[in-house]
Amino acid sequence: MASVAGPSQPPVNPTSSAVSANDAKRRADEQNAPRKHARLPLPPPHILAALVPDSPAFTELMKIEQNLDWTLLRKKAELNDALGRPTRIKRTLRVFVSNTAHDQPWQQELAQSAESDAANINAGKGIPGWVLRVEGRLLDTGNVRLDKTKRKFSSFIRSAVIEMDDRTAPTFPEGNVAEWRPRNLQPPLDGFEVSRKGDVNVNCRILLHIEHSPDRFSVLSPLSDLIATKEGTKSEIMGAIWKLIKMVGAQDKEDGTIVRPVGGFEKIIGKDGIAFHKLPEVVGRFLAHPDPVVIPYTIRVDQDFHLSPKCFDIPVETEDPMKSKMASIVSAFEGQEGKEVAAIEDKVGELAYFARDLKQKRDFLESFSTDPHGFIQSWLAAQARDLDQMLGYQVGHGPNGGSVREEDLRRSDLFHMPWVDEAVTIHEATRLEREKRQ
Predict the structure, then answer these.
(1) Which letter does DSSP use for residue 3 in this model?
(2) Residue 168 has pLDDT above 80, yes or no
(3) What domains, with CATH codes, occur in the chain?
(4) pTM, whole model, 2 decimals?
(5) Would strands 216-219 and 231-233 be described as parallel, antiparallel, or unpaired?
(6) Which residue, 237, 239, 275, is CA-closest to 255?
(7) What DSSP letter does each residue of 114-148 carry, written as one string?
(8) What's the whole-number mean pLDDT along residues 271-280?
(9) How does DSSP classify residue 154?
(10) 1 vs 347, which has greater pLDDT?
(11) Residue of 326, 296, 299, 102 whose CA lies nearest to 207
C-alpha cells in the first residue's frame, strides 16, 4: 500500500498506519497457519451444512461422540477417585508345615547295601538328620481372572522364628533358634526350610510375623480399654481416639487445641492437659507390634515324611485386584490410544476448516464471475472499511478528531503511478465503444 501524503506536507501519522498494517498481517498469518498445539473447535452445524451435504450425519456422530466423551470423563474421574482411596480386601494365607527324615537308624537297617549307607562324617553323609519345611500360598478368590498375579509366601512375612525344644539348652550345634528375614534384592519364596542333625523327635514352635500394609499395631492397656480396640492401623486408632474425645468432651471449650484429662484420658496423658499435636506421640507409647502367629509342631523322625494334620489359615489384607485393572484403564486414557484419538480429532478439525476455506474461495470466485463490476465495487467498499479500521477512523473530521483529510487521499501518489494512465485509457475506450453500439 502506498503511503498517504499530500503534495505540500509529509505523511500524517505514519507510525500508526504501519503498526496497524503489521497487526493485520500477523492476524492473517495466524489464521492461515496450521493449528498444531490447540485443538480446533469445529464450525457450527449451520456452517457445516453449507459446506458438506452429508453434514447432518456428521452432526449426529458428533453428538454421539460428545455423550461418549462425557461418559469416559466421568468414569475416569470415578476411577481416579477409587485409586486415591486405600482399597484392600481380606484374603486367607494358608500355611503348611512338614518335615522329612534321612539316614535314621531304622532307615539304614532297611537299606540293601550297608556299605553305601555307611556314615561319613567328613562328607556329611550317613548322619541322621531331618529337614523342616514351612510353606504357604494365598488362596484363590472367586474371580480368578482378576487374581492373575500370585504373590509368594515370603512377601506376606516380615520374619519367621523357629524355636526347637528348649531354646536355652544347646541341643544342636547350630543353635536351637533359627530365624529368617527377607534380604534386599532377594526374590520372594514359596517357603523356607531348616535342617538339623538328630535321631529323636523334636517339638518346635514356629512364630510368623505377618507383614501388614499399612502397618498394624497392638493397643496396650489402658488405651485399649478406653477405645475398645485391641489392634488396628494408626489411622484407625487415632480415629477411635477422636471419637472418644468428642463423646466425653475432652476438647477444651475455650482453646480447641488442648485435650483435657477427662473421661479416662487422665490415664494416658496425666493430670494436665496436652496439645493436640502431642497426642500422636503420647499414643505411640501405648502401641506395640502385633503378636506373631504361633504354630506348634512336632518334628518326627520315625517316618520318611510327616505332614502336620492341620493347615493354618491366617487372615491377611491385600490390594484389591480390581485396582490394577483400574490403573491400566486410566493409563489407557493417557497412553498411546488416547494420543491417537486426540490426533484424529485434531485432523477432523483441520479438515473442517480446510473445507470452510475452500468454500470461501469458491464463493469469492463465483461472486466475481457472476457480477464482476458489482463484486469489485463491493470489494473496494470492504477494503475502504478495513482501511478506516486500520487507520483508526482518522479520515475526515469525525467525532474522533480525524487527522487525515480526504483531500490528502485524493492527491495520493497512488494515482500518479504508470499503470493508472493505462487503466484510465482502457476504461474510457470501453465506455466509448459501448456508447457507439447504443
Answers:
(1) -
(2) no
(3) 88-212+291-319 (2.60.40.1970), 217-288 (1.10.245.10)
(4) 0.54
(5) antiparallel
(6) 275
(7) TTTT--BTTTTBS--EEEEEEEEEEPP-S-TTT--
(8) 85
(9) G
(10) 347
(11) 296
Give per-residue pLDDT as tens, 95-107: 999 999 988 888 8
CA distance 29 to 26: 5
Q: Is the distance from CB of 86 to CB of 128 less than 8 angstroms?
A: no
Question: Dihedral through CA 242, CA 247, CA 248, CA 252, nearest 10?
Answer: 60
Q: Residue 414 is placed in which grid cell? A: 497512488
pLDDT of residue 1: 38
User: Rounded to whole angstroms, how far apart are CA atoms 257 and 269?
Assistant: 15
Q: Write down the pLDDT at residue 144.
A: 54
pLDDT at 206: 93
In the three-class reduction of DSSP (H, G, I as helix; E, B as strand; rest coil), residue 171 is classed as coil
CA 226/CA 244 separation, integer angstroms: 8
320-324 long-range Cβ contacts below 8 angstroms, 24+ apart: 320/87, 320/88, 320/89, 321/141, 321/143, 321/146, 321/147, 321/148, 321/149, 322/87, 322/146, 323/82, 323/83, 323/87, 324/149
pLDDT the model gives residue 409: 67
What is the rounded average pLDDT of the residues 47-62?
70
Q: How many of the other CB atoms lie within 10 Å of CB of 306?
A: 20
Contact by Cβ (8 Å): 151, 190: no
Amino acid sitting at position 432: L
Name the CA dihedral angle for 11, 13, 17, 19, rounded to a multiple of 10 degrees.
130
Sheet holding 202-210, edge to edge: 177-180, 157-164, 202-210, 293-299
Q: How many CB atoms lie within 10 A of CB 421?
A: 11
Element (H, E) at 373: helix 372-390
